[in-house]
Structures are given as C-alpha cells and as structure tokens.
UniProtKB/TrEMBL annotation, chain B:
GO terms assigned for molecular function: peptidase activity
Key words, A-Z: Hydrolase, Protease
Protein name, per record: Transglutaminase-like putative cysteine protease
All residue ranges annotated as the Transglutaminase-like domain in the record: 157-222
Length: 466, 279
C-alpha cells in the first residue's frame, strides 16, 4: 500500500499500515458491509442525474481513511486562506470599482459577458464585504511537489455532509484506530459555520440573528445535505414558500406568526432565487428577496453573483488575481490550462485532444467534459466539433497523474486516484478552514473522474495533529 | 415639448389576494433629453412603497399591500419636458460599463437566422450600421398586435416577421450585439403625432452604444430615432429587465390585467399660463 504515486508509503500512513498488518484478513470487508448498512439506515443518499434505474443511490464509502500529515496540512491551510481571501477581494472589486479589469488582470469581456456575472449586483456591497461565505476548493496532488487547485466552488458547494458523516462512521467502525492517531476533529465545522453566518448578519440584526437554510426542496440532489446542515446548525430548513418579503424585510412563516430572518444560507442558484428579479418562472424562490437584499436587511450566503469567480475560464487567471489582490504569489498552484478562447491555445488543443482533459467553462459535476486518453475516436471527434463551434466555452488541461490512496477493492487494497475538497468559511471575523475535507475516490481502476455523479466514492479525510 | 402621461394598470384577482408584492419600474429620471417636472404613483388600496435605484439606473418601487384585496390599481401621472437630441442620451450616470450590454439573455439570444440577418447589414461605421439595421427591421418585420406575446424571444418574433414594439426592439438589440455593438432595451411612452392620445400599451425601443457619441436611441417599430415625442422610463438588457411591473400575489389565483394609457402634449397656451404663474 502507499499514499502517494511513487510506490512508497507516506509517513502519515505508517501507523495505519502497521495496524492493518495485525488486523484479521477480512476485517476491512466486514467493516465495509457494516458501513453500508448504517448509511442505508440513516438514509444518506445522493440523487444521480441521468440514472434511470434509481433516483437515489448510496455513494460508495471506502473504509480506508485518507491521511494528511500536520505539516502538509499547514501549507494547504495557508494556501486555501490566501486563495479564498483573494476570491472575496476579487468579487468586491468586480462588483465595485473593477480595478482588476482596468489593470488588465482579467479581460473585461470575460467578466462583463460572463453568464455568472450579475449586473444587478454592480455597485452593491453585502454585509461586511463578504461575498463567498462558504467555498469548496477541489485539490489534487500530482507528485511530491504539493497540491494543485483543480477548481474553486464558490456558488453553493456541496459535500460537507459527507465529510461529517464519514467521520462519524469511521469513529463508530474503528474506535481503536483513532486511539492510535491524533486526528483533528472535523465535527467543529458546524460550529464554525454557525459562528461565521452569525458574524455575517446585517448590521440591524442584533445579538442573536435568525438564520435559515433555504433549499429548493426534496427533489434536489443535495436535499439530504440541506436538511442535515439545518439540523446540525440548529436552524430551520425552509423552502421558498416558507419565506416572504414585506417592506423589504424577509420573514419566515411560523406557528407563532411571521418571524424576521437575518441570514439565509441558500442552496438555490442565483437564477431561481427571486422570480421578480431573475427567472420569472422560478417556483422555488422568494418574490422580492433581492429587494430586501439590496436594502441591506438580509444576508445571503453565498452572495449573489459569486459564480463569476469559479467560472472555469476565470480560474485560469487565478494566479494573477491572487498576486494582484494579496501582493503574494499563489501558494496553491493552478493546473496549467489552455484557454480555448485564445486562437493559439485552441490550435494546440485540437492537435492533441487524445491527451487532454477538455472542460466546458460553465459546466460542473463532471458533465460535458472529455477525458482524451480514455475516450474513443468517435467521442473525441464529436467533442472536436463542439470545441470548434464554441471555443470560448472550453478550457483544456493536461491529464494529470493524480496521486492515489489505498482503497479497498474486493478483499485487498489497491491504489485509486483521489482528490480533496476542503471547506473554507469567510465572515467579517476572518477566514477559517475546517481541518479535513471530502476525499473523493475514482473507484474504477485507472479512472480519473471522481465526481459522485460519475460513479466516484468517498473516504474519511484525516488531518493529523502535531 | 411638454408631455402629460396618465398610466393605470389594474389587476383583478380571481380570489382575494392575501398579499401582493410588486417591483415597479414606472418612474422616469431626468437627463439631457427629458426633465421630469412632476410624477406620482398612487394605488387604490393601502400599500407600502419603497423607492430605490437598480444597477441599470432605473428608479424601482417595491410595493407591498397592507391587507387582502381582490383588485389593485397602480396609477402613475406626471409631466415631462422633452427636447429633441437626435436620439442621443446624455446626462446619465451609468453604473454599468457599456460592455455589459453585449450579454445575451434568454429573450435576446441570436439564432442562425438573426445572425445572418445582422451580418447582411453590411460594412460601415457603427452609427451608420445601426441606422441601416433599424431600417431593415422596420421594413422586414410587420407591426401586428396579437402575433406575439410578452414572452416571445427576438428569434421567435423574427421567424414570423411580425410583432409589436417589444419585438422590434429585442430584434434590434440581438442584432446589434451580434455585430459587437452594446445595446439595451428601453420602455417608455410616445406622444403620437397622429393625435391618438389614448393608447393600448406603453412603447418600447432600443439604445445602442456608439463610441464617441454615447447611447443613441433607435425605434425600429417606427423606423426613427427618438425625438421630443419620447419619454424614457426604464432600461434593461431585454424587455423583462425593463418590465413596468413584475409582481406576484399570494392566494389571488389567475386574474385579469387592464391597462389604460393617456399620453398627450400639454397645450402651448396652458404652458405659458402656468409659467406666468411661477414667475
């Protein structure tokens, strides 16, 4: 077994390796079956788009933890804070003076005609100038030289419930393993989130602001997570119909009458959040919500319009954006990326489509992408036509040799490719990172796609204390 | 010219609505071509109005009713002095860069037919091309009430070559953006030269950003640039963004909407009489 790509065991895995040496041979399989049973009973599911067979499916859980050493995490944490601080400054600037456009850091048209840029937000300042309250940053390791950022998720990133559930499961299944490792707790995430949302409340909200989680409803693929988080935060889970806006103030219907709402952790996309400002036929939003928001009487987490920062084309400018806003070089590197909107880059990409990963700029969840090395000739040619028709819509990246982590495969352990999504919280009180994250694992041998919608699984992520 | 406007919108609900929320973009702002002399919004039921300004520079009133109601009338009345600036808009403080108005929206997405039509305008300076574009739409898309509805896209209206001012404006905007010229939608009122003061609906036209000149109006439905007969009310990326009233009712069911609009010039003698009174 190994924790890297080089065939050697990372230091952080040594205790685990020794423990496994002494464990009975079928222990992991037995624990794995137990885990599946627990998850089914708890109803932890995830709806998979395009899967006719079952609307809701269990995401496979791998019982072998992914372990990150203290020093390594220290570097990651610093890099994540730097990156999210820069993203918040970038959003404040884009919706404010637009200095970074004037300075030539990002092209004006890329921002102004970006589908995720919201002109409605121009000149607005959310409470405390915090735009991205919750970020999920996808990282991969490609070797000993550290982590690369694959993408930033700053709209409504999901997956944090798996980070928390997986830990709970592991503590239940392997209490003795925790006794041998100093694993930093991820359970503090919900407390961090609550404090962060409280600190982001509008100025008139008082000492104990009312917070709600706004969900599109049970048909959403992440509904389980929405209800899970509301429960952990100790706040109401509401749908659009449970809220209304009167006199530029948001209220929640309760059995004791209307109650003012100060902070909305919303898991509804911008387009659907207020039918009187955005898509008029949205049935899941709150009519007039944007008026209350513009009047500064409610906080939306995340702010409206943050998607312009996690657009895959804007991603390619992140190293420059970080330098411009923090004055420092980016600690976490970007994956080298070809911007297909640039003629030279497009030419190069078309010349080696079979080697590259090509992604749609506005896509997410592993949809609409081409993984050259594992695609058929026909698939590549079909994608080539799409790319030529709309080069602006695509970026391309080299196929990375992602690091692997030991993963249970039948009765034994095999290396499988993994990524990592840590969660970063921002509020006027500062930027914090939960010590852990969601490790996604590509369960098929050789596969590089870890998205749960594409058959990936998850692992518990251990960050070791010093 | 001085233009007097009296514009009523009446919503009659199928059942009493417990509560009504609306966003009103019914109030003009002054700029070089128009001076708002007086303006008021009235409702026939008790309602709170909160005034603000949106990113597009429009004055927005959020309307919230105070008690259940089965009908609601919003009446705006006012008077605006206008001068003919050849369609050029100046004296506005734009929060958005012109480049924002190159975005496409669901209603103004170009299809191959519109792209081909726009490219057929031929070469030339942007101002010249916009004039030709206006002429081509005016000549090629018949004005016909009832052929389209408010939710028709530019491409849909263009496909049948028929529509009302909203469609002409959206087709113009879509083509202008295709040609790389920022363009926006304007809702407003037209003092008709044929003396038809009672009108069925408000007017709409487009504005294009001409480098060095600024925003210039183009009324493709009438084939002319706005004159002192035009009063601008609101602008947006498309008709939806400049909609005079967007609202929702709680419990009102499906109702009916009636618009009464009266636009007329204030008589010269009356003007002199009034101005005497002020001096």
């Amino acid at each position: 077994m190994n924790g890297g790509g080089s065939g050697t065991i990372r230091d952080s895995y040594k205790t685990l390796a020794a423990w496994l040496e002494n464990a009975p041979p079928d222990l992991l399989q037995a624990r794995s079956r137990q885990a599946e049973l627990f998850f089914r009973r708890m109803g932890v599911t995830f709806a998979v788009y395009g899967d006719e067979e079952s609307n809701e499916r269990l995401i496979p859980f791998d019982v072998v933890p992914r372990i990150i050493g203290a020093d390594e995490w220290g570097g990651l944490e610093k890099g994540l804070k730097q990156r999210v601080t820069a993203i918040n400054a970038f959003l404040k600037d884009i919706y404010g003076p637009q200095d970074c456009i004037r300075a030539g850091i990002v092209p004006a048209d890329l921002i102004l005609t970006n589908p995720h840029y919201r002109p409605e937000m121009q000149g607005r300042r959310p409470p405390g100038d915090v735009w991205c309250h919750i970020a999920g940053v996808d990282l991969v390791r490609t070797g000993e030289d550290g982590f690369y950022v694959l993408e930033d998720n700053v709209r409504t990133p999901s997956g944090v419930s798996y980070m928390l559930e997986n830990r709970e499961m592991m503590m239940r299944l392997f209490p003795d393993l925790f006794a041998e490792h100093a694993v930093r707790p991820v359970e503090i995430y919900t407390d961090m989130l609550l404090r962060s949302l409280q600190a982001s409340a509008p100025s008139g909200a008082g000492e104990d602001p009312t917070i709600v989680v706004l969900t599109p409803g049970p048909f959403n693929s992440a509904y389980y997570e929405h209800s899970f988080l509301a429960d952990k935060l100790g706040v109401e889970l509401v749908e659009g119909g449970d809220l209304f806006v009167n006199d530029d103030t948001v209220y929640m219907r309760t059995t004791e009458g209307p109650k003012r709402v100060d902070v909305i952790y919303r898991r509804i996309d911008d387009d659907f959040i207020d039918p009187l400002t955005f898509m008029p036929n949205s049935a899941v939003g709150v009519p007039g919500l944007m008026s209350a928001y513009f009047a500064g009487r409610v906080t939306l987490a995340n702010a409206v319009g943050t998607g312009v920062a996690d657009d895959k084309a804007v991603y390619t400018y992140m190293p420059e954006i970080i330098r411009f806003f923090t004055g420092e070089d980016a600690i976490l590197k970007n994956v080298p990326t070809w911007r297909c909107r640039e003629a030279d880059a497009l030419k190069e990409v078309l010349g080696k489509l079979d080697e590259l990963v090509v992604k749609e700029v506005g896509g997410s969840g592993g949809y609409g992408m081409l993984v050259g090395p594992t695609s058929t000739k026909a698939e590549i040619e079909a994608f080539r036509a799409k790319l030529i028709a709309d080069p602006d819509d695509f970026i391309a990246q080299p196929t990375l040799s992602l690091s692997t982590a030991p993963t249970l495969n039948g009765g034994s352990l095999s290396p499988r490719h993994v990524d990592l999504r840590p969660f970063v919280l921002s509020s006027p009180a500062g930027v914090r990172v939960a010590p852990g994250g969601l490790t996604r694992v590509a369960l098929k041998e050789g596969s590089l796609v870890v998205n749960s919608s594409q058959g990936g699984g998850t692992k518990d992520t251990w960050v070791l204390d010093n | 010219m001085r233009i007097r406007i009296d514009h009523s919108t009446r919503y009659a609900y199928a059942r009493p609505a417990r509560f009504i929320v609306q966003m009103l973009r019914l109030t003009p702002k002054s700029c070089e071509s128009q001076q708002v002399r007086e303006w008021r919004i009235e409702t026939d039921v008790d309602a709170r109005l909160r005034r603000s300004e949106d990113a597009f520079g429009n004055i927005v009133h959020s309307l919230y009713t105070e008690r259940p109601t089965d009908a609601l009338t919003i009446r705006v009345t006012g008077e605006v002095s206008t001068v003919d600036t050849g369609g050029v808009i100046r004296g506005q403080n734009d929060r958005l860069q012109p480049g924002v108005y190159l975005r496409d929206t669901r209603l103004t997405q170009a299809d191959p037919a519109l792209v081909e039509f726009a490219r057929g305008i031929g070469e030339g300076g942007p101002l010249e091309r916009m004039h030709r574009l206006m002429g081509a739409i005016h000549g090629g898309v018949a004005f016909e009430v009832g052929a389209t509805s408010a939710t028709h896209t530019a491409a849909e209206a263009f496909a049948i070559r028929r529509g009302v001012c909203q469609d002409h404006a959206q087709i113009f905007i879509t083509c202008a953006r295709t040609l790389g010229v920022p363009a926006r939608y304007v809702s407003g009122h037209l003092n008709r030269s044929d003396g038809q003061h009672d009108q069925d609906a408000a007017h709409a036209w487009a504005e294009a950003w001409i480098e060095g000149l600024g925003w210039v109006g183009f009324d493709a439905a009438n084939g002319i640039c706005p004159t002192d007969n035009y009063v601008r009310i609101a602008t947006g990326l498309d008709a939806l963004g400049a909609t005079p009233i967007r609202g929702t009712s709680y419990g009102g069911g499906i109702g009916t909407l009636t618009v009464a609009l009266h636009v007329r010039p204030v008589q010269q003698s009356q003007q002199q009489h009034q101005s005497k009174g002020w001096s």
